[in-house]
Specification:
Elements lengths: L1 H8 L7 H18 L17 E5 L2 E8 L7 H12 L6 E6 L5 H8 L6 E5 H10 L1 H15 L21 E5 L2 H16 L7 E5 L6 H9 L6 E6 L17 E6 L19 H9 L3 H7 L1 H10 L2
Length: 304
């Protein structure tokens, strides 16, 4: 199953995104069948299309699976939520995006009145291969029921292995690009000869999810937690009380983490993965640490 999923990551020559999407749906049906969830493939009720459904704990779930080149926007999630809302009371929805979610998309769903959709991303599906789809789903349902958050990555529930005496460091950020920047900074520090702690970088997919995701990680990982937010959060983050009693630190970067790369608001939409990696390599760590307190503290926390 993992080999089949990996084979779909980079579009083979001649395979369109649409064809990959159909192959992914077949792969997903196979995964659900392995957990005896009685999956049903795409069907068309009045005037709409649903990617599939499955049965778990005596409850029916509608399923939407996307593998786009870009992150999924709020409109796609709300369109699916509308389908769930129009079905039998108690029906829940599972939305899977292998390309991640836009930051505003998940936060918009988090603040909704009725929470009946939980979100999976690529890392969740990779874990589902190892522990089973039901294992990941049960974790997400419990987080949604107990804490009201529709997107907590399963990775937050897994304590990373420790090969060094110093506990691993969990870093929670708002978006995928933030996570990329953190990983590139860690690589840059290694190139400088620094000893970097084991890192567990989690994407909360929005400001509202920072504290819930960090708290979920803290419950299984006794190591320190660092939460990084843009200055738009003000002096704190929503629901920060969930972190009380845990070893945590919050870094508010003014105005946003991309400033460490010399990028401004005009550059942000155009920044791609290779560009971000190159910008990080150009950072003068000593100069930036001397002039930016948040960056200095992050480097201090990341290195042994």
């Amino acid at each position: 199953m993992r080999q089949e999923l990996t084979a779909l990551e980079d579009l083979p020559v001649g395979m369109t995104a649409q064809v990959r999407g159909r192959k992914f749906e077949k792969w997903l049906t196979k995964l659900l069948s392995h957990d005896h969830l009685d999956p049903r493939t795409s069907f068309r009720p009045k005037g709409e299309e649903v990617d599939g459904s499955f049965l778990h704990w005596g409850r029916y779930f509608l399923l939407e699976a996307k593998w786009w080149e870009q992150t999924v926007p709020a409109s796609a999630i709300y369109q699916f939520k509308g389908k769930v809302d129009g079905k039998l009371v108690g029906t829940l929805g599972v939305f899977i995006s292998m390309s991640g979610y836009s930051v505003d998309a998940v936060d918009a769903l988090r603040v909704g009145k009725d929470l009946n959709v939980v979100l999976f991303d690529k890392s969740d599906m990779e874990y589902a291969v190892d522990v089973g789809f039901v294992g990941v789903l049960n974790f997400k349902l419990r987080e949604a029921a107990e804490r009201g958050d529709v997107f907590v990555p399963y990775k937050a529930a897994v304590a990373p292995p420790r090969s060094t005496p110093k506990p691993s460091l969990t870093i929670v950020v708002e978006g995928q690009r933030d996570a990329l920047i953190i990983r590139c900074i860690a690589f840059l520090l290694c190139e400088r000869g620094e000893t970097v702690r084991e890192l567990n970088v989690l994407v909360a997919a929005g400001l509202m999810g920072l504290a819930p995701v960090a708290a979920a990680a803290a419950r299984v990982n006794p190591g320190p937690i660092v939460v990084i937010a843009d200055a738009f959060a003000g002096i704190s983050i929503p629901n920060v009380e969930q972190l009380e009693g845990y070893d945590h630190e919050i870094l508010i970067v003014d105005p946003w983490i991309e400033k460490w790369l010399g990028l401004d608001s005009i550059d942000l939409p155009a920044a791609r993965q290779l560009q971000v990696a190159q910008q990080v390599r150009d950072i003068d760590v000593d100069v930036l640490a001397a002039t930016d307190e948040e960056f200095r503290r992050l480097v201090e926390l990341m290195t042994c």
